[in-house]
Amino acid sequence: MSSLSAVPEDRRLSPVTGWTRDHWVAAADDLLLAVRPWATPGFGRIDLPGEPARAGWVCDGLEGFARTFLTAAFRVAGCGGDDPHDHLGNYRRGLLAGTATPGADDAESWPVIRGFREGGQPIVESASIALGLDLTREWLWDSLSGDEQDQVEAWLREALRHEPAPNNWYLFPMAVASFLTGAGRGDAETERAVDRALELLEGWYRGEGWYTDGDGRMFDHYVGWAMHLYPVLFTHLRGEGADPELGKRFGVRLREFLGTFALTFDGNGAPLHQGRSLTYRFAAVSSVAVGAVTGATPWSPGVSRSILSGAVKYFTDRGAARDGVHTRGWHGPHPATVQPYSGPASPYWCSKAFSALLAGPDHPLWTATEEPVPAAGPAATVPVAPAGWLVQTTPDGLVRVHNHGSDHHRPGHPAEPDPLYARLAYSTRTGPTSARNVAENTVTLTHRGQEGVRVSFENAGTGPGWAASRHHPRFAATELPQARVLSLVLARGAWEVRVFGGGALPVGTPLTVTGWALAAAGPAGLEQAVEGTSITLGDGELRSHLRAVAGFDRADLVRAPAGTAYGAWALVPRLRGATGPGPAVVLAALTAADPGPAPVVEVEGGRVTATFADGVQGRTSLDGEVPRVSW
């Protein structure tokens, strides 16, 4: 029996999840004890089973050590040094074994740190090791001899001397430099690493608490678990040694970020299924955790704990681990969710969520009564202008995010559309289809027999109840500059009015729009109905609706045999038609409850008016370069 299963629920204190702080401590212990059998004799590496990442199995073993060490650090530091399983004893041995002869061909040695163009994954892992040492300094670092400290420092310092990837990676040398400075080993080199990271961070700030993960439009979970987590912990751990103005700035930004980001967690605990590295799973709540620990949050302790415990419990209950070892995927193994840089130990970036344990047992985060998460409240649509997102929630707790700003493309670096970024919308209960299957939630033009896909798009405006973007469709890896598609959504309640306009393509150009895909174990698990140009799809819990309003004359359901992260086999609702003199319009909805009456939509020239069931009207015009929307 795991220690987690032995902890009783407390539905009085935690009416939403039943979890208390004891569950978190037990979950951390279970995670750490489950990986021990896979450690090398000296504990220098933890070689979990599975295919290696592109960095190779030696680096994967370092990753297993570094990322689980971070869990151990949060667990022991959060419990004031209490360590009944001797977690730190093992990691102390491994720290010395791994740094004794870096690069040696043996079972324990860690790879030498190099730049990102030379296989620089150890730079990433150096940050977890440095942060873990920072958190446990009085129990681990201070127990090392001077020579042993020099040995560890020599390995860590290489992270300051090599080029990181041009994104959140610059925060990793900052974490190393911060630890060395706090340990009395700071110098001009550590100062430069911190200054460089802070300068880049300012350039990536886009307002309202949101950063982009490098140049371009890179909005995903990295905003929370990297761009906020490291700077906030940097000032928190340095205490009086940190610039107070810096701490205030990062705190204000985190508070503002959480004001919208917290809305993206489902009432059932699930994070938004969008963006890369989703195999890190409940790492998604790490910014909520550090916000609660430092007081940089707009949410009450009861709301924060519901989000935190809800996410960890969500994955624990759905089999994210096999025999206690976390798999690469979402609910369980799912190759399409995983990037080439992810190895068997990559999922253990989930360790960052355990930063919640830095709030001691008497902290309000653990003593307050849980409250429902924001998404479980009244229906709402909240714009996130910096990211080009529109967050849509309904009382059933389901969250949809309409994506009109995050394409994960760096300027001047065209790429194929990524299913985790290129879609018109994402949710907390559905996932994108495979890149080799038909795409859900997208718009496609067909020109000379070739499909033009949505890629490298830019935000065309975001406001209350609406968001829009424009893109040049890419045909066979070539963009046609003269072709342009403007996509806009009006959302209210559970319904979405999706509007598509464009230019420079002849009237009659074939046009395809797809809606929300649903997945199941096989075809028998999906209910389907197509009546004229109206499609309804169900999986027993969710309903996906797609209805033509203007511009479409055919409807069908397309098979996606590779499924999604939520099921092995999927269906995608599809409408087909052609461009006309005015915009093409569809109605869509993804619901776990009755969506209510659909809005009545009128199209006149380039103007679209949607009258929703409560009488509220949304109006938009696509006549100009910038869409005009009023309510």
From the structure above, extract its key features.
eight-stranded antiparallel beta sheet, 631 residues, single chain, globular, 28 strands, 2 domains, alpha+beta, Glycosyltransferase, Beta-galactosidase, Chain A, domain 5
What is the topology?
Elements: H1 21-35, H2 57-78, H3 87-100, H4 121-135, H5 146-157, H6 171-182, H7 188-203, E1 205-207, E2 210-211, H8 222-238, H9 244-261, H10 286-294, H11 301-317, E3 321-322, E4 325-326, H12 364-367, E5 380-384, E6 389-393, E7 399-403, E8 425-427, E9 443-447, E10 450-453, E11 458-463, E12 466-471, E13 474-475, E14 478-479, E15 484-492, E16 495-503, E17 510-514, E18 518-520, E19 527-531, E20 534-538, E21 543-550, E22 552-560, E23 569-578, E24 584-591, E25 600-604, E26 607-611, E27 617-621, E28 628-630
Antiparallel strand pairs: 1-2, 3-4, 5-6, 6-7, 7-8, 9-10, 9-17, 10-13, 11-12, 12-15, 13-14, 15-16, 16-24, 17-23, 18-23, 19-20, 20-21, 21-24, 22-23, 25-26, 26-27, 27-28
